[in-house]
Amino acid sequence: MRFLILSDIHSNLDALEAVLAAAPAHDVVANLGDIVGYGACPNEVIDRSRELGKIFVRGNHDKTCAGIADIRGFNYIAAAAVVWTNHALTPDNLEWLKALPQGPLPLDPLTDVQVAHGSPRDEDEYLLGSDHAADSADNTDVPITFFGHTHMQGGFLITNNQEITFKPTYKEENENETWEMSLDRPGKYLINPGSVGQPRDGDWRAGFAVFDSDTRKVKFFRVIYDVAKAQKRIRDAQLPERLAERLVHGR
Ligand code: ZN
Question: For residue 38, how far is its CA from the centre of ligand 1 (angstroms)?
Fold first, then answer.
């Protein structure tokens, strides 16, 4: 089976549409959360995500925008976007967001792969370094975890005596590109497909991944999108300027 793995769309409709146009054929979509927050199209992105189905875990922005988590941990800019999003959501989309499940969850129907927003042990944990990843991997027996939250494409392989960090290597900056790896080594893989709507790894292109459970390969993608349009929507919505500006830098 082929799984399209999306994470951290963050209400960026223009990035999501470009990702869906570039995505190869797949059987199931898994959405790792932070569907909303930061961008200007929360309802459009939720509507599109609901159509795609099928596997979802909630992100910290989903919880906070839905009013079921405390906003106090958010910085001023993120909090402004949370308040804006909460007001913008339709009642139906607000209820849907509230009901999103907590990860980790199996990548159904597989039992040896799971999805989480933050990490296998805590849906809000940031896996930024291999030491965190190793600690978190100790809390799970599942060999492959797809996670989001950090907005950094790549991940970690934790073996009995090694912690390996991997990151796709690309040649271009303004074209679509892919990078493939085989999950063929013993140990636990923790894999971030990248952020669709607000990358923070220095590459402005929308990130996502496709996992093929038959070949045990992950293909990472970076796709260009109409970033000026996404920025204009943010400015027209009078969301903080920083949320528009950062999109062109991927930071
Ligand atoms: Zn996020």
Answer: 9
160 C-alpha vs ligand 1 centroid, how far in Å? 30
Q: How far is the CA of 36 from the centre of ligand 1 (A)?
A: 8
Q: What is the whole-number distance in angstroms between the Cα of residue 148 and the centre of ligand 1?
A: 7
What DSSP designation does 234 have? H
- For residue 196, give the nearest of 4, 3, 1 by alpha carbon: 4
Q: Which pLDDT value is given to residue 73?
A: 87
Q: What is the pLDDT of residues 178-212, one digit of tens each?
A: 999 999 999 999 999 999 999 999 999 999 999 99
How far is 194 from 71, CA to CA, in rounded Å? 24
Q: How far is the CA of 193 from the centre of ligand 1 (A)?
A: 12
Q: What is the pLDDT of residue 54?
A: 84
> Binning pLDDT at 50, 70 and 90, where does residue 22 land?
very high
Can you list the domains of the chain with their CATH numbers?
Answer: 2-248 (3.60.21.10)
